[in-house]
Amino acid sequence: MRLYSIAIYLFLYVPIFIIVLFSFNAGRHASELRGLSLQWYGKALANPFVVDAFVTSLVVALTVAILSTLMGTAAALALQRLKGTLRILFDGMIYISIMIPGIVIGIATLVALVTVFNFLNPLLASVWPEGVKPLKLNMGYATVIAAHTLFTMSLVIILVRARIAGMDRTLIEASTDLYATPWRTFYQITLPQIFPAILSGFLLSFTFSFDDFIISFFVAGANTTLPVYIFSSIRRGITPEVNAIGTMVLAVSLILLMAAQYLLHARTNR
Amino acid sequence: MLKNEDSKPNHWLTAALLMPTTMWFVFMLILPLIVILIFSFGERAAVGGYAASFTFEQYANLPSRLKAFQNTMIFAPIGTLLSLFMAYPLAYYLALRVDRRYKFILLVLVIVPFWTSLLIRTYAWIFILGGRGIPLMLEWIGIEGVRLVNTPGAVLIGIVYGYLPLMVFPIFVSLEKIDKNLLEASNDLGGTPFKTFMQITLPLSMLGVATGCMLVFILLMGEFLIPAFLGGGKVFFIGNALVDLFLQSRNWPFGSAVSVTLVVIMLITVSLYMRLTMRTKTGRDESLM
User: Fold this and answer.
1) Nearest residue to B116 via CA among A105, A148, A255, A67
2) For residue A93, what is the DSSP state?
């Protein structure tokens, strides 16, 4: 059984290792290894499309992570006090937004927003002051961020709620008994206890958004994210440059994930 | 923020805290789903997109994409079962055999790939299965003319590779929870290892198995990348048909009808499945991480 497990770990990691190895390829062809060099990283970083897509991905992922952490944590705290039908409704929404396939979210968001925008844009243009270029609603940063946040916000709610459920309630009672204001109790007792879950929610949201392809593919408009760029360059042909970009993407998510896992389990697995 | 039982709950605060989330659910989830539901009864405008109408034409036209539905409904269960059979022994080993000190790090090593880019991990297999990967190695040992990429087998490898981690985790959690005294008791009472496994370990881990299967199955139903990269147009899923309908032929009403059908099939399968397997409600929250 140990041998089997080793085989599975190899199965999981050898392909990743191959991508990393071939990204240091000195040769010109993707699949022939001719010595090691960093030239493809240089090429990738000198490519304005790659840099643009990378910056877009970072901006989107960071905004998504901040938004979903704030909204998700707020909702998780409030849901503790919600009972009855409303609670069931909310739980339903949370699970639906996590379970519905990304492709359906992407399509439905695209179709709905394009329709709404087509309806609003003439209206906006008609009320806009003369001589100023009217605001035109379009697919772009805002739409990707909003679509990603639907999923990651629900993820944060689930993570934080699990943490609240495992929290020591006597501390809160003690704090209230000692005449601490509700705000102070939250700040000094609740927040420090749920903080690891919030932080790992932040990191997971960032990674999800940074790696997501299918939702961005539909709703990113002209703001190409890095996975969308990688997808279209793979379609055009496999080059060592793709391996270099892929390795950088893997590195970003691996570092954040290790941090998230550590935070999530470090204090619970005593 | 967590109120003491005897203090009066502050309804305004609760409402304010839930406000942004509610808005997101309404505008980014409910509204879009209603829009595609409405569109699925419409007609395709001459230039593509949507023209208002009320017709069942789009649904009547569904059989033209029958192949995509069939492929999805064949590959998703097979892929789920393959992942299960590969994941169970590993979860068992991690939960019951590994030294406590290494358990956490070994588990993290399984989960981490799931959260890294599926795009790049699937791309790696184009590389490995493509002409200069495994086929070239086979040529060295004298086996020629093997084609691996763009075959059903390649799609299945991609599926197992992509979703194995998601299967391992819930099974691990349920195995980990088993009271070790039960296993010892069975052993003391003369149960063979096989009998102990069949009568105690396996039944007690069924919840994890069910959760894992459901998670993987749901994701496979909406899969696009793996068949796009490894199926080469021969093995295509509903997801590939959807991308084609929305971005190539711009047939929004028909695409909407396909999406609605996909969601309905998914909801029916999942609720049937849950009714069959999840009599007890536990372990769902943690199964997601």
Assistant:
1) A255
2) H
Residue A229 and residue A50 in contact, taking contact as beta carbons nearer than 8 Å: yes
Q: State the amino acid at position A65 in one-letter form.
A: A
**Tokens encoding B27:** 């505008």
- The yes/no answer on whether domain B57-287 falls in CATH 1.10.3720.10 is yes
Dihedral sign computed on CA atoms, order A71, A73, A75, A78:
negative
Cα B160 to Cα A7: distance, rounded to the nearest angstrom: 14
In angstroms, what separates the C-alpha of A40 from chain B's closest C-alpha? 17
CB-based contact B113 A249, cutoff 8 Å: no
Domains (range + CATH), chain A:
2-266 (1.10.3720.10)
If you write DSSP's letter for every residue of B153-182 in order, what string do you get? Answer: HHHHHHHHHHHHHHHHHHHHHHHHHS-HHH
CB contact under 8 A, B29 and A93: yes
Q: What is the pLDDT of residues A130-164, one digit of tens each?
A: 777 777 788 889 999 999 999 999 999 999 998 88
Distance CA B186, CA B189 (A): 5
pLDDT digits (tens, 9 = 90+) for A202-261: 988 999 999 999 999 999 888 899 999 999 998 887 778 888 999 998 888 888 888 877
Alpha carbon A178 to its chain centroid, in Å, reads 41
Q: List the single residue in A with minimal CA-CA distance to B108.
A: A261
Q: What is the rounded distance in angstroms from the CA atom of residue A60 to the CA atom of residue B252? A: 27
pLDDT in tens, B146-171: 777 888 999 999 999 999 999 999 99
Q: Give the per-residue pLDDT at B284.
A: 44
**Using the beta-carbon criterion (under 8 Å), do A101 and B229 form an inter-chain contact?**
no
Helix (H, G, I), strand (E, B) or coil at B7: coil
Residue B212's Cβ-side half-sphere holds a number of Cα atoms within 13 Å equal to 31
Q: Please name the residues between 235 and 254 in chain B that touch chain A, using a CB distance below 8 Å.
A: 239, 242-243, 246-247, 252
Nearest to B35 among A16, A82, A115 (CB): A115
Q: Where are the alpha helices (DSSP H) in chain B?
A: 11-24, 31-39, 57-60, 66-92, 100-115, 118-129, 134-140, 152-177, 180-188, 193-196, 202-204, 206-221, 225-230, 238-243, 252-277, 284-287
Do A71 and B123 count as a contact with CB atoms less than 8 A apart? no
Query: What element of type H or E holds A206?
Result: helix A191-211
CB nearest B121 (choices: A16, A72, A234): A16
Contact A269 B104 (CB under 8 A): yes
> How far does the CA of residue B77 sit from the closest CA of chain A (Å)?
16
- Name residue B50's beta-bridge partners: B44
Q: What is this model's ipTM?
A: 0.86
CB of B197 within 8 Å of a chain A CB? The answer is no
